[in-house]
Amino acid sequence: MPPVEEWATFPFEGDLRPRPLEPPVERETPRHGAGGVDCMRCSAGDQEYLWTNERWRLRAFDRPSGLPVVLVLESREHFAEPGDLSDEAAGELGVLIARIERAVRGVGEIGRVHVCRWGDGGEHLHWWFMARPARMSQLIGIFAAVWDDVLPPLPERVWRANLATVATALSPGTP
Ligand SMILES: [Zn+2]
Fold first, then answer.
1. Which of 95, 140, 149, 153 could lock onto 64 through a cystine, CB 3.0 to 4.6 A?
2. Cα 81 to middle of ligand 1, angstroms
3. Residue 144: is it exposed, middle or buried by C-beta count within 10 angstroms (0-12/13-18/19+)?
């Protein structure tokens, strides 16, 4: 095992060993919705989202997970990469990321809002917002995304209240 298991933030203990590294595949595996074909995010209705505007939509998942808030920001139109955005849309995205981060932090007792972009599952451009609870030092850093699946899910009532706080902060007229 690499020394990662010595990190206080590593979510697991006991006997673990890395999987053997497989050789490269012949070509990259196509991502879901590649090229906008049969893309679930393109075909989703606005009712599936917590907040929307003309060019962007923000969604939560259909059930709570371990972290207090986990959201995904998507472009309304199908883009694959941040670099495919026009300068205008990229500028808008920057402002929006800041607004959403602030709204999530407004839930209270949030130690950090991780803003992440992987995009190796579905191609449709999306950004993750993962809120780490304050003062839970084991959850600091990159394993927060793994802890989200390791921890028991938030009580439904608390989760819904957190999402409502974010939606209110993002609604028009809220400074
Ligand atoms: Zn799409």
1. 153
2. 11
3. buried
What's the gap in Å between 53 CA and the centre of ligand 1? 16
Ligand 1: centre distance to CA 34 (Å): 8
Model confidence pLDDT, tens digit, residues 90-99: 999 999 999 9
Q: The tokens of 156 are what? A: 């439904």
Q: What is the pTM of this model?
A: 0.93
- Calculate how far, in angstroms, residue 162's C-alpha sits from the geometric centre of ligand 1: 27
Report CA 81 to chain centroid distance, whole Å.
16
Kindly state the tokens that stand for 85.
């955005």
Q: Any residues with CB less than 8 A from the CB of 5 and at least 6 apart, and which?
A: 12, 13, 16
- pLDDT tens string 89-134: 999 999 999 999 999 999 999 999 999 998 889 999 999 999 999 9
Q: Which residues surround ligand 1, an ion (CB under 5 A)?
A: 33, 36, 39, 41-42, 78, 124
